[in-house]
Specification:
The structure holds 2 protein chains of 2 kinds. By secondary structure, chain A is mainly α. Chain A has helices at residues 21-44, 75-94, 98-101, 107-123, 125-128, and strands at residues 3-5, 49-52, 57-60. In chain A, strands 2-3 form a two-stranded antiparallel sheet. Classes of the chains: A mainly alpha, B mainly alpha. Chains A and B meet through β1, α1, α2, α4 and α5 of A and β1, α3, α4 and α5 of B.
């Protein structure tokens, strides 16, 4: 008879990053504010930049597609806004005392991304109900 | 002199994106199943399902983060060509829901990207029961997201992708 033991748990990590309290605060805050910032960017259409793939032109902020220059792309800009703003907010969170950051509810790390799904479906309603 | 044609160049990148996605999908599925249904103790060799979930899940975390970022970067790179040569014909053909699902895919990929630091931290501290629920839920979210992204990408490729 052979025995297989649980393989999910790891031995305590020796990585300094994984044991860093500041990184923990950064990572948890980033996971919470990231999806929120992304949804805000979508709602208000706040890309950091707009890319025009036909001409390889990049414009700061949002810029409409120009006649004869093909479509515009804002997804890169939304993602860039999210990563930049999320990093700033998460860095600021690391400056807070540990007694405060310890109170950040871990449930938000996964609840917000799950709640983002119905919002995204609503945001894309133009495609589902297109005549 | 061009060594390869423009079509071949982009096809190679599409295939790189596919291969990275397959590796990511496999790793995340193993890890998610191991997180949700960990193998505690098995008498005997165990069946396929037992062996499937009996992987050293914590050891996958860094590789999954690297694979997600690489797949994301390559996907972002080929997206520029998708926008012109795939999306416009799809819109002209009136495949609105297909287009909607691709936009859904890009949103989910970006949101999942923001979860990676926390996901990595939870798995590197897998010995700490305080993070058990968050670790499982984030891993399951990433696995579901990865399957969704993969299937949508596959359908999009069938509609107008490889060789078109």
């Amino acid at each position: 008879m052979s025995t297989t033991t649980s393989t999910t748990r790891a031995t305590p990590t020796s990585s300094s990053l994984a044991s860093s309290t500041k990184f923990k605060t950064f990572a948890i805050t980033f996971a919470i504010v990231g999806p929120v910032i992304y949804m805000v960017c979508l709602f208000f259409n706040w890309p950091l930049f707009t890319f025009h793939p036909a001409t390889n032109r990049i414009a700061l902020g949002w810029e409409a597609a120009r006649s004869g220059e093909g479509p515009n792309m804002t997804w890169y800009g939304w993602t860039a806004t999210t990563l930049l703003a999320g990093s700033v907010v998460s860095f600021l969170a690391t400056l807070l005392p540990e007694t405060v950051t310890r109170k950040i509810p871990l449930i938000l790390v996964w609840l917000i991304p799950f709640l983002a799904i119905p919002y995204l479906a609503w945001d894309l309603r133009q495609w589902w109900f297109h005549p | 002199m061009d060594i390869i044609s423009v079509n071949t160049f982009w096809t190679i990148w599409l295939l790189v994106h596919l291969l990275l996605a397959v590796a990511l999908l496999g790793a995340l599925t193993h890890q998610a199943v191991a997180a949700v249904m960990p193998v505690r103790q098995v008498a005997g060799p165990g069946g396929f399902v037992t062996r499937f979930r009996a992987v050293p899940a914590a050891g996958y975390a860094t590789a999954i983060c690297v694979l997600w970022i690489l797949t994301f970067i390559v996907g972002s790179y080929i997206y520029t060509k998708y926008r012109i040569y795939i999306r416009i014909p799809i819109e002209q053909a009136g495949y609105w829901k297909t287009q909607g699902f691709f936009d859904f895919k890009e949103h989910v990929a970006s949101i999942a990207l923001t979860l990676l630091p926390a996901y990595w931290f939870f798995w590197k501290n897998a010995h700490n029961p305080q993070y058990d629920t968050a670790r499982k839920m984030v891993t399951v979210y990433l696995a579901i997201a990865c399957w969704f992204l993969f299937i949508v990408g596959h359908v999009l490729n069938n509609v107008r992708g490889f060789g078109s």
